[in-house]
Write a structure and sequence with these properties.
Layout: E1 6-10, H1 24-29, E2 31-34, H2 41-48, E3 53-56, H3 65-69, E4 76-79, H4 89-95, E5 99-101, H5 107-123, H6 126-134, E6 152-156, H7 160-171, E7 175-179, H8 185-190, E8 194-195, H9 198-204, E9 207-210, H10 224-228, E10 235-238, H11 247-256, E11 261-264, E12 284-286, H12 295-313
Parallel strand pairs: 1-2, 1-3, 3-4, 4-5, 6-7, 6-9, 7-8, 9-10, 10-11, 11-12
């Protein structure tokens, strides 16, 4: 009897993959194991040591050269989306292990929506208002809320997501400012935005929203000195990458009152440990990296996984092969 290939799928925290595509054919062709819990170090190795093929949801499972070297049975690896910052693609290529990926889906649109949910949730203090109502109370001093129209919205990174955030700010009647390392006044004007220095943006904006790629020139961009520039009533929002902010400095800055609030969807370590003080910082709104968590995206992820693995088993061309740069 021919042995069925052993396929391990990692990082399906949302238990969404089987909901959004048909798995009938794969279930007949292979032994499928789907892990829903976070796995690292030895627990990750134990889960994948006998895998012929591995599929990873986003970059939730780190694969470095040392781990890849311990997987002699591995013949194929894929991940969802078109980027993976925790995968040593060169080590896989050296082993001659082909890689595939899925399309990314409308993550720019969903991240823009979440950014504005965080901005409005913080500015209108929706969590506090909801808790007050649940206690049987009505309005209190925190119910006198700020108005965003006429205020300054500072966007750090005017790319695909930042420009979308800017358009909503303009629709709300905000004065929209932007800074990024290579932003030109002409590019900013094209988005109906004013290009200014980073220091001016930080010191004058009511809302500061981060939308940069975390690279060598931007990691740790916002630390103690930059946070100290911010208004005491400002709100700092990050739906990009946690590496853009020194998170230890942010917690101290929030305690000191500059900025007055922050809203964060991304963290240095994910999932955020249960005892991490960021979970209970009073002027910090935190969400569990929801920027790309949306039904249409997971439909693309799930269909991409099934179609790619079926193609691999049938020895057909991989729909979206990944080639390391």
């Amino acid at each position: 009897m021919t042995r069925l290939p052993n396929i391990v799928i990692l990082g399906d925290y949302e238990r969404a993959l089987r909901r959004f595509s048909r798995w009938d054919k794969l279930d007949q062709q292979a032994k499928i194991t789907i892990h829903h819990e976070p796995l690292q170090d030895e627990s990750l190795y134990e889960a994948i040591k006998d895998a012929d093929a591995i599929a990873i949801v986003r970059d939730r499972s780190p694969f470095n050269e040392a781990l890849i070297a311990r997987l002699p049975k591995l013949k194929f690896l894929m991940f969802t989306g078109e980027r993976n910052g925790t995968l040593d693609a060169a080590a896989l290529a050296t082993r001659g292990i082909p890689m595939g990926c899925t399309l990314g889906g409308p993550s720019k649109e969903t991240t823009t929506e979440l950014t504005w949910a965080l901005i409005l949730g913080s500015a209108k203090r929706l969590i506090e208002q909801n808790h007050m109502m649940a206690r049987g109370e009505w309005r209190d001093a925190l119910s006198v809320l700020p108005m965003l129209s006429g205020e300054r919205l500072g966007i750090i990174g005017l790319g695909a997501i930042g420009s979308r955030v800017a358009r909503v700010g303009n629709a709300f009647g905000m004065e929209v400012l932007a800074w990024s390392p290579h932003l030109t006044p002409e590019r900013a004007a094209h988005e109906n935005v004013k290009s200014i220095s980073l220091d001016e943006l930080l010191s004058t904006s009511k809302i500061v929203s981060l939308h940069l790629v975390a690279g060598p020139g931007t990691k740790g961009l916002i630390s103690a000195n930059q946070l100290a520039l911010m208004r005491p009533d400002a709100i700092l929002v990050n739906t990009a990458r946690s590496a853009l902010i020194n998170m230890s400095d942010l917690q101290k800055a929030l305690q000191a009152g500059r900025p007055g609030q922050a809203a964060v969807d991304v963290f240095d370590l994910e999932p955020l440990p249960a005892n991490d003080p960021l979970r209970n910082t009073s002027n910090l709104l935190v969400t569990p990296h929801l920027g790309f968590i949306a039904e249409p995206i997971f439909e693309i992820f799930s269909n991409g996984i099934t179609k790619t693995l079926e193609a691999w088993i049938d020895q057909k061309p991989i729909p979206h092969p990944f080639k390391s740069e």
